[in-house]
Design goal:
Elements lengths: L3 H9 L18 H9 L9 E5 L4 H14 L4 E4 L11 E3 L2 E2 L2 H14 L6 H15 L4 E5 L16 E4 L7 H4 L3 H8 L8 E4 L8 H10 L4 E3 L15 H17 L9 H7 L12 E4 L5 E4 L5 H14 L5 E5 L7 H8 L6 E5 L11 H8 L2 E2 L11 E5 L2 H7 L4 E2 L2
Parallel strand pairs: 1-5, 1-6, 2-5, 6-7, 7-8, 10-14, 11-12, 11-14, 12-13
Antiparallel strand pairs: 2-3, 3-4, 9-10, 9-15
């Protein structure tokens, strides 16, 4: 059998809409991935799964759900997109990247069953399903890649479908207003699934989600405002507290259907704060020169505003630096105007988003944000503390150059 590296290169040779100019969901059909999983014996059929979509927060909620399920003694499969530093992060069993041998076998099986029409994301999604079936995972936690209705993961029949947030993003695919974006993401709602919204009360898209749930015969479950959750979480942003509360509410609700979930929410509450640290979400890391960097993959207006507010509050009086990257489909000028000029004592730098081909030009971003352009993803000299944000790919490029702070 081919090596795992060789198989991964074969996957990457397929159309990858994460990286190319044409968005992945522009295919607007699920026929190829449906055919693929059928030829594989429908590994996703009959499984217990939670399916997540959203403009922001779906990765965080997925992590919290998985940790609660695992703490309750269940074997978990967690599928994430994209990864930070290593593609193996996308497919996890029991809280760890799947074993190389399991990945090698699954990808080989998927490629052997491929018709040649599937995209990279179709193939890697099917490989995750193969791994989770082979490893006998009790519960699957599956994050969409983009949108929902036409996302490759939407061949699932989950026990719960969760929309974490709705903001204007990927408008060339999902639509140019919140209602259209919400309708695309609500495509993961299915008959028989508990349909959840993490939107705050009064959100412009809430009615769209409620209508979508009603069309599949379900009532929309809502996270109450204000949220109530433990006070020792290792991140200060309100949206992260909402994400934690949403995961806990979903687990509590599902426990009424599956007695084995009875302890999951309580076990999530009992986890020590260090066990709730998430990679790239208000993650404090140490630089080689002793400085501190806060890594956060915020990339929408609301999440960027929140992380900046928390950064400025926690490190008031420090010489702060912000290292920003964006995808080239972001409205950089609109973000800069909405965020406003930085306060005195805070320097901004723009960088490429790792080696991602959809990275916005750092020099062009620098002109928009009044920043200093960096030629590559690096930690600039000068500031005492740095915030790295705006792009998962930037965080992923810089994180391996840091070490944990305990």
């Amino acid at each position: 059998m081919e090596s795992l590296d060789a198989l991964w290169k074969r996957l990457m040779a397929r159309t990858d809409y994460e990286s190319c100019a044409r968005p992945r969901a522009a295919r607007f059909e699920l026929g190829a991935v449906r055919g693929l999983v059928e030829r594989l014996g429908s590994p996703q059929a009959g499984v217990r799964a939670i399916h997540l979509a959203g403009s922001k927060g779906k990765g965080s909620v997925a992590h919290f759900l998985e940790r609660g399920l695992r703490a309750a003694g269940l074997r978990t499969g967690l599928y994430l997109s994209p990864h930070l530093s290593d593609w193996r992060e996308r497919i996890q069993v029991g809280g760890r990247p799947a074993a190389d041998e399991d990945l090698r076998r699954a990808i080989a099986e998927v490629l052997a069953a491929s018709s040649g029409e599937e995209t990279f994301f179709d193939l890697i999604t099917a490989a995750a399903f193969q791994v989770f079936r082979a490893r006998g995972c009790d519960w699957w936690v599956i994050e969409t890649g983009l949108g929902g209705r036409y996302d490759s993961t939407n061949v699932l029949q989950p026990q719960a479908a969760v929309i974490t947030s709705i903001e204007r993003e990927h408008t060339e695919v999902l639509g140019d207003h919140l209602g259209a974006i919400a309708a695309e993401k609500a495509g993961i709602f299915k008959p028989g699934a508990r349909c959840w919204s993490g939107l705050p009360s009064g959100h412009a898209a809430e009615a769209v989600l409620a209508d979508a749930a009603a069309r599949v015969g379900e009532a929309l479950q809502r996270l109450p405002d204000p949220v109530s959750c433990r006070h020792d979480l290792p991140f200060p942003q309100l949206h992260m507290r909402r994400n934690f509360a949403l995961a806990r509410a979903v687990l509590t609700d599902l426990a009424a259907r599956d007695p084995r979930l009875g302890r999951a929410a309580a076990e999530l509450d009992r986890l020590p704060p260090l066990d709730l640290v998430l990679p790239g979400r208000w993650e404090r890391r140490a630089l080689a020169d002793g400085r501190t960097a806060v890594l956060d993959v915020a990339h929408t207006l609301d999440s960027l505003r929140s992380v900046l507010d928390c950064f400025r509050a926690e490190f008031a009086g420090w010489r702060r630096g912000v290292v920003l990257a964006l995808r080239d489909d972001k409205d950089a000028a609109g973000l800069a105007a909405a965020l406003g000029p930085p306060p005195a004592g805070e320097s901004w730098f723009t960088a490429p988003a790792g080696d991602h081909p959809r990275s916005a030009d750092a020099a062009a971003l620098a002109r928009v944000f009044g920043a200093t352009a960096l030629p590559a993803p690096v930690f600039p000299a000068g500031p005492e503390v740095l915030l790295v944000t705006g792009s998962t790919y930037l965080v992923g490029a810089l994180r391996p150059r840091t070490s944990p702070i305990r």
